[in-house]
Amino acid sequence: MPENPRSPVIDAVVIGRNEGARLLACLQSLRGQVRRLVYVDSGSTDGSVQAARDLGAEVVALVMDRPFTAARARNAGLANLAADPPDFVQLLDGDCQMQPGWLPMALAAFAAHPAAVVVCGRRQERFPEASVWNRLADREWNTPVGPARACGGDALMRFAEVWAVGGYRDDLIAGEEPEMCLRLIRRGGQVWRIDADMTLHDAALTRMSQWWRRSRRAGHAFAEGAALHGSGPEGHWRGETRRALLWGFVLPLAILAAGLVQPTGWLLALIYPLQVLRLSRREGLTWAFWMTVAKFAEAQGVLGYWLDRLRGRRRSLIEYK
To answer: Per-residue pLDDT for 1 more than 50?
Structure first.
């Protein structure tokens, strides 16, 4: 009689720093779901390391010999699994909680799409009612179902494929997931977003300053991603970089110059409310307003990346929590 095929081995890597109760909820949602649970800590001072050990996680504490990045933390977790590699690895941020039933649905998606190397689902904001910026984040997580160009920080991945491309780029402070997905796709892999609840996320965006820093970080990611891979056929983040610079830098300078030359030149500023009205047809006025404002923060991130590059410096983490 033919042998029954063995069940796929799934391990998990969770990363975090000072996530407190959010980390406990994250780790508890994975207990009993995976073979090995690895928590990578990036310098927590709130007792996260001991709390993770108490919940049965293997802990990797990053040393402070070089800057922390999410990419570096995830790679450390992957390296911890490499000696006895799983078939799949679930990546999860410490401020997220895995939804019941996610792993079976993700495995079914891998079976349905043999070329898939990454499968992700719907990440939902835990407290969208807490602020307009939390609601914007929840809208951001709701990406189209089907073949995708990238995943976020939470996804189930084929370990061998991720390990074969060297995992994440340790030096990226943002945008490391799309960058790795691009390399996986170039090797012939596929990234799939399926119609399934995957994780609950706690962005805790309660102040505009947090949202601004998050948008500035996105601009940095656009610029660095475009610098790395923008010349390729995919045009990786070229369009996002150009739009950030156009709406957040070039047009404001043009309006200022026109207004100083002639008072009627200030009328050019009407292009912004017109842009809000145009975008509002997609997701409403609130979303359109904040997406337009975000371009100023993104432009700051783009320009900051290039200024640092000209100076031969690397930007430290742009944190919003």
So the answer is: no
Q: What mean pLDDT comes out for the span 9-35?
A: 95
The answer to whether residues 76 and 171 belong to one domain is: yes
Which run of H or of E encompasses 156?
strand 155-158
Q: Which of 26-30, 63-67, 173-177 has the lowest mean pLDDT?
A: 63-67
> Residue 314: its pLDDT value, please?
81
Residue 234 CB neighbours (<10 A): 13
Question: How high is the pLDDT of residue 4?
Answer: 56
Phi, psi torsion values for 202, nearest 5 degrees = -115, 90
C-alpha 80/C-alpha 60 separation (Å) is 8
Q: How far apart are CA 89 and CA 77, in angstroms?
A: 10
In this structure, the answer to whether residues 30 and 117 fall within a common structural domain is yes
Which DSSP symbol is given to 43?
Answer: S
Q: What percent of the chain has pLDDT over 70?
A: 98
Domain of 81, in residue numbers: 10-206
User: Would residue 5 count as lying in a domain?
Assistant: no
Q: Is 46 in the same domain as 109?
A: yes
- Asked which of 206, 234, 250 is the last residue of a domain, the reply is 206
**4 found inside a domain:** no
